[in-house]
Amino acid sequence: MNARVSGGRPVAWEDAGRQIASLLGSYAAVVVTSSDPFAAAYVALGIAKAEAKHRRAVVGDLVGDIPPLRDLLAGQDVHGITDSFLYGVSLNKIGYGVEGTPNLYVMPSGTDPDIGEEIFRSARWKKLASGFSEVGALLLLVAPSDSPRLGELIDQIDGAVLVKDPEIPKAPSSLVLARVPTPTPTLKIPLHRMGERMGERAASWKQRASVWRERARALRQRRWFYPVLGTLAVLIVAAVAAALILPHLGYGPRFGSRGVATIPAPTPPPPRPPPETLHVAPPANVNDSASAAVFAVELFNANTPEGANLFVRKNGGALPAAAVSPVPIEPDRTIWYKVTAGAYTRRYQADSLLLALRNSTVLTDSGGTVTRTPLALLVDSVPTQGGIVDAVRAAVQKYEARGLAIYALMQDDGGARIYAGAFARADQSAELIRQLRGAGLNPVLVYRTGSAP
Fold this sequence. Notes:
This protein is an alpha/beta fold. The protein has helices at 10-20, 37-51, 67-70, 81-87, 117-120, 124-135, 150-156, 191-220, 225-245, 305-315, 347-359, 388-400, 430-438, and strands spanning 29-34, 57-61, 96-97, 104-107, 138-144, 159-163, 176-180, 295-302, 323-329, 334-344, 369-372, 375-382, 407-410, 416-423, 444-447. It has two domains: 2-180, P-loop containing nucleotide triphosphate hydrolases (Rossmann fold, 3-Layer(aba) Sandwich), CATH 3.40.50.300; 286-447, Sporulation related repeat (Alpha-Beta Plaits). The chain is 35% helix and 19% strand. Strand 9 (323-329) and strand 10 (334-344) form a beta hairpin.
């Protein structure tokens, strides 16, 4: 079974799923898809096992009797998705608990494992996704990426997790919430398995030592052993003498005063050119640093801009000054999209927002954290005027219509400033500066001031 997962061990794909599980914390129904359905199934199981620690997680098989999911049912011949969608079996009767993992359930493909197009495009998925959202549960549907109706399925629920592939050929415009291009590269061996391996190695060495002792005993019992040993000793002495004398006769390597061969140092490779970076000027309003809106609540991190923007669209009404900031993560400088909310000069104000978001289920009970983000990119401003609220709303909508994630903060003089991003350090803003310049804007790094309208 494991051999059918190309490009990584099953447990490594599961670990990769666990690593991105936090990105799906605010979603209720997601398709996990790949041209390698086995890899998709293991990633889905990794996500589900991580999420099952704090909410119910259900993994559905839209591939058709795929072993990674079927084997969790202990060989039972059970009803599944086709029985429910085609023959009316209740959905409550096709979810089967996984032994040893509370809150984890599997929905098999069914007694007829052939998943037809009518199931992929069924309007029931939208209602099912809504039901999972209402109870705070998670539905993960494992599906092959070449399914003709895959796009219609993804469009009815929150989005997709894409495994291994750069795009979804049958649904190129569908929303991708997260990508898992490879299995986890650092797979830790459990301690009990490490102990077993060390025991096996020790036994192997003992066996080898026993063999060598037997061979030595056999050699000693042979009459020619000592003459041969004497001949080897003479050859070794001759070789050492030649190594000491020949250099003085002009042969062999030269030796220094202490008898160490002088070998020229290897030529180091040419230095690599530094990675191309964008110069970021210091904040333009240094005098405003003392009054900056330093505190915010970090809500969510996505590895695609679509995932971050969808989170903001779904929860925008509860998120004052919501910012999406592309930030490079060390060591390989991979870009992640950080979502923050709020802009406050006092820590307790951000704490209050965090508590309110947890109570409103925008965040889980342990989700979110208060962070310091004093910097932002100034994109535009709205002067003091009558009907300032409508003027600010119009300015924000102008940029949102261009697909730009921006927000407004009201200023003490009655006007407003339009910002993009929220950063702890100036160098973190380089990627967003590059993106905004590409959109024809001229952003300026500043200490952000003001408060959400």
